[in-house]
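agent> Task received from the user: take the single chain below, predict its 3D structure, and emit structure tokens. No templates, no multimer pairing.
agent> Plan: (1) validate residues, (2) run structure prediction, (3) serialize to tokens, (4) report one or two observations.
agent> Step 1 OK, no nonstandard residues flagged.
tool_call: predict_structure(input=
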Amino acid sequence: MRYVVGIAETGSFTRAAARNFVVQSALSHQIAALERELGVQLFMRSSRQVRLTEAGEAFLPHARAALDAADRARNEAAAAQGTVRGTLRIGVIPTVTAVDLPSVLKECRTRFPELVLAARVANSEEMIAEVRAGTLDIGFLGLLDGTRVEGVAQRVLTRDTLAATLAPEHPLATRDRLSLTDLADEPFADFPRTSAGRKQSDAAFARAGVERQVAYELGSMDLTRELIVSGLAVALLPSRYAAAMPGVVVVPLVEETVRHEILIWDRLHPSPAARAFTELVAELRTP
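)
tool_result: status=success, residues=287
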């Protein structure tokens, strides 16, 4: 089954053989034997391409599920003997502050050397859906106070508020506090429209009955910071994150907008790696 998945994903017997560290002739022999056993042809072969037949398309998701189940069984057996291994898939918002993520990942690798870590930046909605679907093990979210997340295990890591983030030379940077009305005419840098981070600042302005101009929709916090420092934009950012951003001034808002950073994982069948990681996060969480 692993060979079938490899061919389907690479589109090539040669590349699938290389991925599985076998010679192509051995892989071809095993596929032919499986097709005889099943009584169906799984692949259409030509000199130019290899593609799944209708039977192969039907077989593929079950093959993947069987391989996942076998991997989980091996990992659970190893965990019973004190060894955490497998692959841990982690998603994280770009503004996480509840943990020093590089330090957590380094400690995780030190404690569990057989565990493979795969981390990427994602938005909160994507991570919730992927943890529910079983394609992501861990998610670090940033959500507005009162937001309900169903179908996953979760732990609130920290409470924070949004704050105005400005260039030091900005005329409003000397103020002790700012209202959203004060910022209404400023060009904003913000997250893409569909992201949870963008929805938080949009909701704050909507509650205040204030309209604003989002001039720059960005997924990169480095570029956001550069626009702020250059005076081209202002932003509403989590205050803890903004406070650690070099070259900017952070001013609290009159209209408090509370958000939480939340850790989520599979509620029903967390892997040994996910269980170990959530315990590590609890131990190393930033005060």
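agent> Step 4: summary for the user.
The chain has two domains: 1-80, 86-286.
agent> Done.
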